[in-house]
Amino acid sequence: MNFCKRAWLNVWAKKGRSILLILVSAAILMFVLAGLLIRSAAVKATNQAKAEVGATVTLSANRQAAFKQMRKSSQSKSSKRSKLTLNPVKLSDATKIAKLKHVGSYNVTSTTSANAKSYDTVSTSTGMGGGGTSGGPGKMGGKTTTSTGDTQIDGVTATSLTSDFSDKQSKIVKGRGITSSDRNTNHVVIEKELASQNDLSVGDTMTIKKTTGNKGTVKVKVVGIYKASSSSASTAGPMSTDPSNTVYASYTLANSLKGSKYANTADSVTFNVTAPSQVSQVKKAGNKVISSSKYALSTDDSSYQTVKASMSSFEGFANKIVWLVAIAGTIILALIVILMIRERRFEIGVLLSLGEARWKIVAQFFTEMIMVLVVALAIAGVGGKFVGNQLGSQLMSQAATTTQTTSSMAGQGQGGGQAAMTTQRARQRLSWPLRSVRSIWPNSVGLVLPLPSCRLCWLQEASCAWNRVKS
Amino acid sequence: MLKTQDLSYWYQNANQPLFKNVNLEFEEGESYAILGHSGTGKTTFLSLIAGLDTPKDGAILLQDQSLKKIGLTNYRRKHVAIVFQAYNLFTYMSPLNNLLTAMAITESKHAGDREYATQVLRDLGIGEDLITRNVQHLSGGQQQRVAIARTMVCDARLVVADEPTGNLDEDNTQAVITQFQSIAHDQKKCVVIVTHELDVAAMCDHQYRLENRQFTKLA
């Protein structure tokens, strides 16, 4: 083991050169460790984001099958025009799906309309020479499809599970929202404009008039007041009521307003899938427990796919950093070692003249490198730990923001006007790990990366996921 | 002890050898000087008998055994010690560590014996204050004495020296040659010195001149 002693003597005697080599190696190793750290953070963040963003499966009436049935009926009874009959979803079917693997919470939606009795609805002037309330939305279910009212009743399991509330489009300003405990009660949550116009507050009662059946009246109790950020009628269709006239209630109340035959039914049920990657399996399993001629299961994992694409791009970016630094570092270290060995040809000659074995000479140089690398690794480890702590806390704080945003994706429908929000969320999700990294490694990352074309993530236009989302 | 049999060497053209069919014999307890002008092949001959190179033709025998059979690395480690004109010490070590390293590599019977190494250095005039100092901080004469000490602590029976006094002044030259004579006569080793200095050669027991591709023994 004389070569080990020689290695030590050489490293110790040439302190300046050894320190320089340690610093260069430490810098390279720190870059590599940082790259690995970023990649590890990206993988963790990806998994977390994937878990949080979720995916949904919606159970609703099978419109395709209903249209097919309608066409068949109209062919047989050529003189008479047939009506489109949509079957409301039975809650017993929804319960079966809720028991499937990877299915988390679910939200029952039942929407109808009613007429104001003890209050005035909010009227909207369109500036086109007309004003006042327009017809309510047409609803599912046999004969009631033509019934309209000036107040829209949105029956839900809980307001917090609706996309409007989870997306912060609407928020409770007084009282509370509808929860699952409001089942079989007449509790409602009304819009702030409607409340102020009618001088209503939490605890007050209001009377609404059914639009179907005996057209009787129902007394409802206000338990909460919400504020809708998009209260303009322009956001709704030309036949819609003003958004302020939307009243949230338990789906049981909406069903009772529709009629007794709608008990234990829903317009649609949205299931949150806990493992977004398993959404197709959930759909497959769900189709087995329902009648596909009556109902259809639709999936919405677009958010998951967006996040997946964004994070894959980020992981690729981190991988590139690791490889780039590792290759560049290896080349730099190899060049240094080659220069060192060239410088020491004289010493090699002396060792050979003394009869030293070649492998021991090689082993001596390797031992010297290992000594230097061990110290460099320790320095890089300490530096990496510091960077890791900084990066970790930064990622955690960003993740908290992202969690709030991503959780709103659960139960999101396919309604219009969501595209801009989806893009905004995707941008936030995509950018936070990159912003975190950039804030910690502003100069070092810039050293090893070419000047990017995307200001957000520094990637080239073609490979930038944000640009893909934008387009 | 060491014999050359029809030893020939050339670099590129076999028709222009540095020396051809050289037959020499070197004995223990004797010192030999090889004289010659620059470029005649003195150092090349020394490289061959030191096992640093292989002959193009002929053979070198150590106690009637071919160097090929002994193995050049083994031969260099066990049977030969070399002193260079530029001392060729480990520049990142002290004189003591230079000796201890050489003793370890050559698997000397005194390997690891610091006292022995210190005594040898002391005998050659390298005092206590110098033995732990980096060799680069020693004078040329001191460094050459350390190089000679390195050959003394090894068990090699053959000591070859290439221009060992080339960088030394007169006093140091005298001291170094005295040491070589002591190695030859007291330690009963065979010392072969390549030099172009007649004074140095005259102090050796035998002198050979390399001229016109042949070795000639001087009277």
Automatic annotation (TrEMBL), chain B:
Q: Name one GO molecular function term.
A: ATP binding
Q: Which InterPro entries match?
A: AAA+_ATPase, ABC_transporter-like_ATP-bd, ABC_transporter-like_CS, MacB-like_ATP-bd, P-loop_NTPase
* ABC transporter domain sequence ranges: 2-218
Q: Which UniProt keywords apply?
A: ATP-binding, Nucleotide-binding, Transport
* Taxonomic superkingdom: Bacteria
| Entries under Pfam families matching the protein | ABC_tran
User: Keyword Transport on this protein?
Assistant: yes
PROSITE patterns referenced in this protein's UniProt entry, alphabetically: ABC_TRANSPORTER_1 (PS00211), ABC_TRANSPORTER_2 (PS50893)
**Protein family per UniProt:** Belongs to the ABC transporter superfamily.
Its recorded name reads ABC transporter ATP-binding protein
Q: What is the lineage of its organism?
A: Bacteria, Bacillati, Bacillota, Bacilli, Lactobacillales
